[in-house]
Amino acid sequence: MAAARPLNRIPALDGLALGHLISPPTQAAINKVNHTAFGKSAKWRFQPDTYTTSQVVEHVAPLLNSLIAELGQDPPGAEPSRKILIDGLRSCLATTGRESTLPIGNAINESGESARKVMAKQAQRIGSLLVRCAQNAPPPDATAPQMTVRSPCEGHVWTREVAGLLIGPRSNGNLMQVYNEWLHQIVLLRDGLLPFENFDEVRLTIKQEGTRPVDDIRSKFLMQIMTAQVKRTTVIDVAKGLTASGLPSGGYGFQYGSGIVMPLSLFTGSSSILLKYVPATVDDSNHQELLFDYENKDYFSVPRHEISVDEVTTNASSISSMNLYSVTFKPVSSSFVIENPRETDSFSQIRHIKLHGSFEDGAQYSVDVGQITRGLRYAYRAVDTNYEDSSAEPSSFTLHKASDVLSLPDLVTSTSHSDGVRLHVIQAGSAVVRMALLGKLYPENVVLVNGEKQSPTSASGVGKGFGPQFVIIGGDVMG
Q1: How far, in Å, CA of 473 to CA of 327, rounded?
Q2: What share of the chain is helix, strand, coil (3-state, %, to 5)?
Q3: What pLDDT, in 10s, does the model give residues 445-477?
């Protein structure tokens, strides 16, 4: 009898399990580079397989080694060719400078945590890693083959030192293309890794053309980064480029042969645009590649349930007089459930993930994980205010039980002051309930208040100034 596979538990969500852990390919099993296998002269190609980031760089190293070998011995006192060429790579991967292929380094100093700033930090971290990998790749030796490759000009600007080397008398037209291909393969690797927070852990599914599949989405992605208009759909599509290129566009996460890729926000409770790779599987069907899609692609058109005073559990004259943290409303059970979309057949690559749960009072709920990610994206965070020191209070509010709200149909909202209520306060009690509420409330004017460090009144002045406001208290995600 086979041993049970360990569950993929998410500590930030009270240890809730999302599928089962798997063993990703080991370093030994996926180290496919063999410098002598190409022969004395050969066309460069990738051996299709699964690779780590460093192994992709190692697998393109024969291009660099062939180039260096054909350039011949460096003149006495000259800077080594290998150093010149790797320094050229460093300049291309930099976020500032004449040769930069992603000149967004100034975004680092922008206020807030915009997608553009996040991508600038990612580019710097990934670029540094790739340069180290290139430096650590095996150097050329006597067996280095003469590589040939057709590499169309990609418009990368060479450093003056690289240009002097490759346009000089020691070079030829083929060597220029060999360098261009080596450079572009690593630049595309950088761009394909930008969506991943743990880019150094992700397993990459590389085909014969190497990282070239990223070319199809790269221009669109870089344009969005440069204009500070990064779309999450584009981020997820770029992430598929080197992992699950056979999946359709869209979704918020996916499963492929080496694991799952999900929004980082589910693990941290933030509004981050980045993704997280986990060596796990959530669906053991015959499809290795599955797209996790939103149950409702356009949440604006989803029916909404108007919350009313009939659903109010508690009214009080003063929020500050209530000990909102003395009572917790935790579900007695909760789990992620994988479902086939109703409109597709069993062979579809599309799946929905639902968060199911029940409470002691018998209330049950089912919330789409895709809608939870939207709730995290659009939620406002309360300003830092000590609970004891808060003196400002809203003119009217009401306290709701989380179980009551979660058991309501459709997306819950409140659009009028006819009941005299401005603030709807919901005590989460756990990270799971907080996530579920974010997927149940219409994501327009929802404010998150962090545990006992903040008062419910710290939501005052946060969010939209019109209409009622929902305030979720507690259930902080400690990722």
Answers
A1: 12
A2: 35, 20, 45
A3: 999 987 666 666 677 677 777 778 899 988 876
Q: Whole-angstrom Cα distance, residue 369 to residue 378?
A: 14
What is the three-class DSSP state of 105?
helix
Residue type, 467: G
Q: What pLDDT shows up at residue 286?
A: 63
Dist. CA 69–CA 66, nearest whole Å:
5
pLDDT class for 263, splitting at 50, 70, 90? Answer: very high
Contact 227, 196 (CB under 8 A): no
In tens, the pLDDT along 329-348 reads 567 789 999 998 876 555 68
Residues 463 and 452 sit within 8 Å (Cβ to Cβ): no
Taking every pair of Cα atoms in the chain, the longest distance, rounded to a whole number of angstroms, is 88
Helix (H, G, I), strand (E, B) or coil at 102: coil
Looking from the CA of 251 toward its CB, the CA atoms found within 13 Å total: 27
Helical pair 173-193 and 215-226, crossing angle rounded to 10 deg: 60
- The length of the chain in residues reads 479
8 Å CB contact between 250 and 234: no
Residues 6+ apart with CB under 8 A from 240: 247, 254
Could you give phi then psi for residue 135, rounded to 5 degrees?
-65, -30
Q: Please, how many CA atoms are within 13 Å of residue 178, restricted to the half-sphere of its CB?
A: 26
Q: Give tens-digit pLDDT for 4-63.
A: 789 899 988 889 999 999 988 765 444 444 444 444 556 778 889 999 999 999 999 999
* CA distance linking residue 382 with residue 433, whole number of Å: 18
Tokens 């990368």 belong to 156
Amino acid at 88: G
The span from the CA of 36 to the CA of 143, in Å, is: 6
Q: Where are the alpha helices (DSSP H) in 332-440?
A: 369-378, 402-406, 431-440
In one letter, which amino acid is 128? S
Residue 30: closest CA among 42, 6, 48, 14: 48
- Whole-angstrom distance, CA of residue 386 vs CA of residue 406: 28
Output the CA torsion sign for 224, 153, 140, 213. positive
CA distance 430 to 476: 7
Q: What's the one-letter identity of residue 277?
A: Y
